[in-house]
Amino acid sequence: MSKGYPNILIHGFFGWGDQDLLNKVSPYFGGIFKKGMDQYLTEQGYESYAPSVGPWSSAWDRSCELYAQIMGGTVDYGKAHSEKYGHARYGKTYKGYINDWGAPGAHAKVNLIGHSFGGPTVIRFCDLLDRGCAEERAVTPKEELSPLFEGGHANLIHCATTLSGTNNGTTLAEAGSDLHISNLVNWLLLGVISTCLGQTNAFRLWDFKCAHWGITPIYANELEHKFRGFRACKEAVDRYNANDFDNIMVEMSVTNSAKLNEETSISPKIYYFARRACRSHKIGNLPFQAMHLKSFPIAHISQLITGWYMTPYLKKTFGADSSWFASDGPVNTVCTAAPWNKPQEDWTEKTVVVPGKWYNMPVEYKDHFSWMGFLEDTKVYRQYFLDMVKSFEALEPIK
Question: Is the pLDDT of residue 49 over 90?
């Protein structure tokens, strides 16, 4: 019999999960040529899954995909939402990890663990289960409405945890928006790849899951092994780039993260935890920070932005100062705390944890990729996650 409630490990931007062949070689939560954390935890008696949500999808779209993968069924992005942002309403159909999710017993609830942009995904997902969406309810016939948009289902979640979540954005994405390079990145990594790889077997290795935009195929096992026309690809990526939201590169900015957080609430039935990391350091009296040598290469590269980027707008609007230069590489440590507009406190060993409130866990000596197992001691890494899910099990479920 499984211990505690099932754990759902949600990858971040540009990530992958158990439906991608890449995950068999290098599990997103596990490291290269290692056992995936979902498999390890399950072997220890803690039922766990690592779904493949859209690596380039918005927090809303990823939430819809997550719901279908857990419960089973066809992804419904919502009638109002899909019409507003210009993409298909329905997506892929899944068998479901937990078809009896919500039934009394071991599957009554789940624990959500989101890394990087998996953080905003967890936040949006919990809010949708709790409050649903009035816009969707207003335009969708009752028989067509996804349960995700009904509201009143916060009892399906036990704990919501973020690992270096972009809960308040990152100045890396803010710089991308300010310097007008976000759309260029989208074009290079969506448009060019989609055009070059078309409907080839490459998407079996790593599916970008942008079929609802018309950018990638819906099912990787229904490929025609041919290149795509540039014009069709351009129109699809242009639709994606035209949105200020439903566009992950923009949603990760500090500015738009604040706007998204204004749209969400927290539930008195869910426990919330924000786990933070920092592996940068000051260099004398210089006005920037650099990563410690024991950091993943991409963390060093991204710190070239997060370690110094600041604007008058960030200072005036968010009170940003030099403390923001501390980071895990891609994400400023201050931004990985609980959403700034939500009730929260810093956790200590004497803290009495209650639902309906965020707890900022002590800042840990990690870079952004430590949560994925890169450059980490395998035994220590696995024990960390095992201890974390055991802590969930110790919390009293809220009915």
Answer: yes
Query: 3-state DSSP helix/strand/coil percent for the chain, to nearest 5?
Result: 40, 15, 45
**Domain residue extents for the chain:** 7-170+253-280+330-393
CA–CA distances in Å: residue 220 to residues 26, 65, 208, 376: 19, 16, 10, 32
pLDDT in tens, 226-284: 566 666 677 888 888 888 789 898 899 999 999 999 999 999 999 999 999 999 999 88
Kindly calculate the radius of gyration of the chain based on its CA atoms and give it in whole angstroms. Answer: 20
pTM greater than 0.85: yes
Is 283:289 a contact under the CB 8 Å cutoff? Answer: yes
How big is the CA angle at 246 (ends 238 and 360), to the nearest 5 degrees? 145
pLDDT mean over 83-107: 95
Identify the residue with better confidence: 200 or 131.
131
Terminal CA-to-CA distance of the chain, rounded, Å? Answer: 22
Is the CATH number of domain 7-170+253-280+330-393 3.10.129.10? no
- Continuous H helices in 276-367: 297-306, 312-318
Q: CA-CA-CA-CA torsion for 251, 253, 254, 255, nearest 10 degrees?
A: -70
**Tokens linked to 354:** 């209650």
Q: Is 174 exposed, middle or buried (0-12, 13-18, 19+ CB in 10 A)?
A: buried
Q: What is 66-107 written as a DSSP string?
A: HHHHHH-EEEE--HHHHHHHTS-SEEEEE--S-TTTTSSSTT
Tokens found for residue 146? 């996804």
Q: Specify the pLDDT at position 188.
A: 74
